[in-house]
Amino acid sequence: MEEIKLLGAWPSPYSYRIIWALKLKGLNYEYIEEDLSNKSDMLLQHNPVHKKIPVLIHDGRSIAESTVILEYIEETWPQNPLLPSDSHEKAIARFWMKFVEDKEQEKAVEEAKQQLKIVEEHGLGDKKFFCGNNIGLTDIAFGWMAVWNDVIEETVGVKIMEANDFPRLHAWVKNFKEHPVLKDNLPDRNEMLAYYMHKRDILLART
Amino acid sequence: MAEELKLFRTWSSPFALRVIHALKIKGLEYETIFEDLSSKSASLLQYNPVNKKVPVLVHNEKPVCESLVILEYIDETWKQCPLLPRDPYEKAEARFWAKFGDEKLLSSIWNVLITQGKQLEEATAEAVQNLKLIEEQLKDKKFFGGETIGYLDIAFGWTVNLISILEEIIDQKLVDEEKLPLLSAWMQNFSDDPVIKDCWPPRDKMIAKYQAMREPYLKKVVSQ
Predict the structure, then answer these.
(1) How far apart are alpha carbons A30 and B26 in whole angstroms?
(2) Is Ribonucleoprotein found in the keyword set (chain A) (predicted)?
(3) Is the ipTM here above 0.85?
(4) Is A115 in the B-facing interface, judged by CB distances under 8 Å?
(5) Among candidates B100, B75, B73, B70, which has minimal Cα distance to B85?
(6) If pLDDT is split at 50, 70 and 90, which confidence band does A118 have?
(7) Which residue blocks in B26-180 are alpha helix, DSSP H?
């Protein structure tokens, strides 16, 4: 009997990537919430190098780094494939997964808008999801954009991803949130807003 | 249909070396197109419009970008001399350490290049710590891939060349044979491999290039 455990933290988009992948594969798992201000021995034991979540523990063996975990899940449980079978299309999917890892740190508004334009035109194009009609690992990697982005925008009071400027991305966000499996596995928006507002207050109080 | 492989790269890019090593191990013929990054060719911009970077591998007119993504593509497309392990868990471990190399190790080695004095001591200590973690993955194997060169050896291959260049520039050992015996041996084995050893970029040009990259950081400290 397979044993799958996920060490995660509820506000983390990286944590949710794994939840979404496991749910899309129809897998049962035990979720363990980590308090990142007081990391458990289990986390330190299973990810001694980075001491971060998410960590997947499958039959006692641990895998860290969300994109590495996503690929592991895809290879270990081939049902409901989340990557294209064609090697070139797979390479494109992986390229965009790397792109979103590198670009998450964009702070300046103009740069962020430029990056979004690139994603909309070159990544998404006319497709429903990044790799076609079905949701895949690339969509999961971009998931923060579907769920966290507008909460962050509301928290800081700056709108970057306007519907008029990014119609395809907005359509993708809607399709992502309405996906039959994902829609019941999204963090609560009010709780997220409260969480990020609180974080912001702390930061502002310090300056 | 005849396979057509083109590799867009610069003369010095460590990430391009990864692709070259993989193609050579697989015994694949390819055409090299050298890019001048200050004046990118129309072809490069056409094949990689998103981030306009090298290396780009173009296979029968289909471009693949990002060196580690290219490695996986090569391994999946040409099955001879497999680079990645078969087992998903071992594959995950290889990918994890390749990512570690590109993030933690690369930035710590960069810090060694651009610092001096006390900061250099700290940067060196951190780089050596990261190298120690990587050395532990060798265990008792000749290569990270086992008896033969694999994905992780290729992913780390840039360290073999760049570290020796750095050591000459800063006149200090980073990979000490006593402190990092297994890694030292691995570097030698990797360099001596008949497929790898003719691929290194010209050493004197590399030293000049990295010396030039270091200069502005040294000047900045002196002027403060």
Answers:
(1) 42
(2) no
(3) yes
(4) no
(5) B75
(6) very high
(7) 42-47, 67-77, 88-100, 106-114, 117-138, 151-170
Q: What is the mean pLDDT of chain B?
A: 94
Residue A134 in tokens: 């079905």
Distance (Å) from the alpha carbon of A95 to chain B's nearest alpha carbon: 7
Range with the poorest average pLDDT among A98-107, A118-127, B53-62, B127-136: A98-107
What is the C-alpha separation between A25 and A207, in angstroms, rounded? 45
* Coil, helix or strand at residue A7: strand
What is the Rg, in whole angstroms, of the alpha carbon atoms belonging to chain B?
A: 18
CA distances from B202 to B12, B36, B106, B207, B208 (A): 8, 17, 21, 9, 10
Length of chain B: 224
Q: What's the CA dihedral at A84, A130, A55, A152 to 10 degrees?
A: 180
Do B50 and A118 lie within an 8 Å CB cutoff? yes
Which residues of chain B lie closer than 8 angstroms to A95, CB-CB? Answer: 50, 64-66, 69
Q: SS3 for B113?
A: helix
Contact flag A87-B50 (C-beta cutoff 8 Å): no
CA–CA distance, A89 with A86 (Å, rounded to integer): 5
* pLDDT tens digits for range B127-184: 999 999 999 999 889 999 999 999 999 999 989 999 999 999 999 999 999 999 999 9
Distance from CA of B114 to the nearest CA of A (A): 23
pLDDT score recorded for residue A29: 98
3-class SS at B6?
A: strand
Q: Does A117 touch chain B (CB under 8 A)?
A: no
Contact list, A105 vs chain B (CB under 8 Å): none
- Chain B: give the shortest CA distance to residue A63, in Å: 7
Alpha-carbon Rg of chain A, whole angstroms? 17
Inspect the interface and report whether the beta carbons of A63 and B77 lie closer than 8 Å: no
Both tokens assigned to A77:
């449980």
A98 Cβ under 8 Å from any chain B Cβ: yes
| C-alpha span between B156 and B140 (Å, rounded) | 17
C-alpha distances in Å from residue B123, one per residue of B116, B129, B203, B207: 9, 10, 24, 20
Q: Do residue B64 and residue A88 have CB atoms under 8 angstroms apart? A: yes
Is 0.90 surpassed by the pTM of this model? yes
| Cis amide leading into A13 (omega within 30) | no
pLDDT score of A64 more than 80: yes
